[in-house]
Structures are given as structure tokens and as C-alpha cells.
Amino acid sequence: MAWQWRTSILGFVGGDLQLYEALTQLYQQEGAEAASWGTLDGPTLEYILKAVAMLSMREELVGFALGRLAPETHAVLTQGQSAMRKKLQINDFMGTEGLLLGLLAVETSVAAQALGEQGVDFATAATLLRDWLADCATAPAEIPAQMPFTPRAHRVLELAAQQAQQQGDDQITPEHLLLGILQEGETGGGMAKRVLQACGVDCDRLNQRVKS
Fold first, then answer.
1. Every domain of the chain and the residues it spans
2. pLDDT digits (tens, 9 = 90+) for 7-55
3. CA quadruple 140, 144, 150, 156: dihedral positive or negative?
4. Which helix (H) or strand (E) holds 80?
5. CATH topology for 71-211?
6. Short-list 209, 154, 208, CA closest to 180
7. What's the rounded Cα separation, in Å, for the pair 135 and 92?
8. pTM greater than 0.85 (yes/no)
């Protein structure tokens, strides 16, 4: 809900971030009174504003994590966005499926090799996603140059940063990113987990393989 509210406000101000911040602050200052400006009741608006604040905090943490990406991991994100935009033309955001496609596209990483050992490759994943997300097709002109991360993808990046820290690594590698996908999948799981399940992946064995 917070994601949709923020997207609506950004659309209303034409993507002007300064105007967006000013409008959000106005909503926060007015509190329940601001609910009368639209169709929301006071408690719901207060909940959304708190959620938006948490979302912004999460994005700051992810921004910190993005500054620690290894060159190969940068390539994963670039290839993932390219696959979503050019090959699949689905959605206007970067979810866990985009992260997985990026991992599979950069075939030189240990993560991609580990996935391949269990029968997961780029072509297979892309075909599955194209079938599942056919209703989410987006015109290429409507897909932003920098696709925003979904909440699940944000969480994967947070977990990848934690994996790097736990292993004493200065940079976040594709292997950390895959471990983040697997860990996020234990509690929620987005489209990436669905692909792995469809391919019959043994996630415990994959986890051990990547960590070895």
C-alpha cells in the first residue's frame, strides 16, 4: 500500500523529488487532518506515512549496500534490468525475478554455475517468467531507464549485504546475492523462488554449494 501511495504521489508531482518531499512533509505535519484531502481515513493515512518512512529507510540501507557491490554483481544487476526490459518486456520494476535473470546471464560467476548444475539456465527461467507474467507486459517506452526495486528485491539486497558481512567480505558478490534470494525465499519468496521450485532445485544443497 505504501509503495502504491508513493508511486501515485510521484506521478502526481511529475517525478519532481523535491516537490514529492515537500508534499510528504505536509501530509506528515497535518496528520489526520490530511485524510480529508482524499478518500483515506486518519488511521490509514498515518499507517501509510509510517510505512513510507520505513520504505525510505530501507532504500537508504540498500543504497549503502549498492555502494559495496563487486564489479561482477554490478553486471548482474545491469543484465537483470536489460533482460526485464528488452527480452521479457514485463513490469516496470525490478523484482527477485530480475535479480535471478541477472545471475543467470553472468555465466562466469560461481552462483550461475551452481544454478546450472541443478538445471537452471537463463533460457529456462526467462520462458517460465514470460508465461507466468504475460499479463504484466509493459510497453518498452513505459519502462524507466532505472527500474526501481520491489520490496522483496530490497530485502534480498539487505540479506546479501548481511551475508557478505558474516563471511568477512568487503564486497557483495553474485554468490551473496543468490544466498539472499534463497534466504528471502524461506520466509516469503517471490518469482525467483517460484522459478527454482519449478526447476526442481534443492535449495539446501544449492545453499551449501554456494557457501563452499
1. 2-54, 71-211
2. 554 454 454 545 555 655 655 555 545 444 444 445 554 544 555 554 4
3. positive
4. helix 71-82
5. Double Clp-N motif (1.10.1780)
6. 154
7. 13
8. no
